[in-house]
Amino acid sequence: xxxxxxxxxxxxxxxxxxxxxxxxxxxxxxxxxxxxxxxxxxxxxxxxxxxxxxxxxxxxxxxxxxxxxxxxxxxxxxxxxxxxxxxxxxxxxxx
Length: 95
What we know:
This protein is an all-alpha fold.
């Protein structure tokens, strides 16, 4: 059985993991490309996300695209829905 302290440290280390490019997410570059291909500004994308109930603004999108912010599962789901792509594509670039 794991002690509470060990479990807390384990959670903290998982939360602090970085990608191999030292960013905080795997989708930054693909999100930027998808948004550009859809001819959407960051503000336009933020509006679309807000319309489906995901509270993100332009600054959040900037931080995701520059790998300075983690992406939550429900945000990933919303981006998948808006752009009509798979999770595999968003995360690994696999079509």
